[in-house]
Amino acid sequence: MVTMSPIATVIIFILMLLLVLLSLAYFTYSILLKTRPADRKKPVLPPGSMGWPYIGETFQLYSKNPNTFFALKQKRYGSIFKTHILGCPCVMVSSPEAAKFVLVTRAHLFKPTFPASKERMLGRQAIFFQQGDYHARLRRLVLRAFMPSAIRRTVADIEAVAVRTLRAWDGRRINTFQEMKTYAFNVALLSIFGKDEIEHIEELKECYYRLEKGYNSMPINLPGTLFHKAMKARKELERIVSKILASRRKKLVEFNDLLGSFMEAKEALTDEQITDNIIGVIFAARDTTASVLTWIVKYLGENPSVLQAVTEEQEEIMRSKEIDGDKYLNWDDTKLMPMTSRVIQETMRVASILSFTFREAVEDVNFEGYLIPKGWKVLPLFRNIHHSPDNFPEPEKFDPSRFERSPKANTFMPFGNGTHSCPGNELAKLEMLVLLHHLTTRYRWSLSGSEAGIQFGPFALPLNGLPISFSLKT
Ligand code: HEM
Ligand SMILES: *[C@@H]1O[C@H](CO)[C@@H](O)[C@H](O)[C@H]1NC(C)=O
Fold it and tell me: Which end of the chain offers a freer environment for a tag, N or C, measured as fewer CB atoms within 10 Å?
């Protein structure tokens, strides 16, 4: 998959050699000191190998599908192990109990952590990076805009976006992921700004695309670098958001969208805090939803009987609306889609687009006799949990019927859990259901047949974004 220059090959060879030597040394050392946590009062580090200092096991992690790395490690060491990636010592956990401990019951001992460059691009005051009172306040504002009682009024507007999106694909060969990104972007903008800011939206989109190009760049702020261009685009986004804020303040009416929630006087967020969080929500909402939708198109294409069942469920809803003379989907319609909902759940389980999340221990923590030292990263491995045969029999099989019964607590966490879990999950499910209603009742598509691979960017995605041929049903 990856082609390398001869020099890189030599360097990697030397690194591997060092790794072997170090592992040997470590192996001898660990035999000499073989102790099990239960035998001791003092907690011990989890099992695992740290690899070469600094480089650690990053090379192994990135040289193959990261999931293979996690699966191998888990097989070797169990559901908690230590390793070293990107210069950071870390502990990876993959049992429901450990995930609950880190994300829910002891969440205060584990703070969110991101690369500094990401923080600068999304904005330092964005919700992801916060803890304590400011985080709780932001979360309340975000949840207020995205909870069912708020978004149920927007179903018809989301439907209009879906219909427009699908119509534009008719008769074309499309890149599913690219097109789904546009859809998720438009729905996110609708839920943030409502329908009334159209004059500023195109400009805002264009800036966001420029910002996005720098997301994974090196944080070097010199003219000409991607990072520099991205930071400039961020400045412009701030300016556009300020213009929208100013025009809304003149209108003196209340808005039910996210911006309206942020602007409410007694909550008093600064313009800068509002901008950081708008950019943050777009970032959190777009590629995630688009990746899941892309996987759904793939799995439906590969499982004709499942597609048939979903189509029948959606046709039934369409017929009942024709009889009642309702033109638009509403919230209650979306509650009559159990089969389609199970397809969404099973897709999120199998694809596990967020393979894991990151936290950092704020003090030495003892988990079941294991020490997690202060400053170490902690990664709950969602994908391993979703693919464990203990939680889901025949885990590699795509079988939506397994969700006819609810999964056990902390075995299915596509939206995380606890204090930082996804506040957009209801909106995400809603916009997927609405799109699938029109997709399955009106259109057909065919996969090109060469879409077997996975790529990570950083979300798991079918290779090349899943090119498909798309047309109206005849
Ligand atoms: C299918 C699509 C989506 C998936 C799979 C997803 C998944 C997640 C997960 C796993 C987290 C928690 C990360 C952690 O604990 O470290 C999260 C957080 C978040 N998500 Fe989503 N998400 C999706 C769509 C959305 C949408 C549509 C929005 C907004 C409209 C959104 C907004 C957020 C925000 C703001 C956070 C941060 C919450 C906090 O730090 O308190 N997400 N998401
Ligand atoms: C989150 O954790 C709580 C407490 O353990 C649990 O009751 C709930 O089911 C968990 N949520 C998920 C999605 O697993």
Answer: C
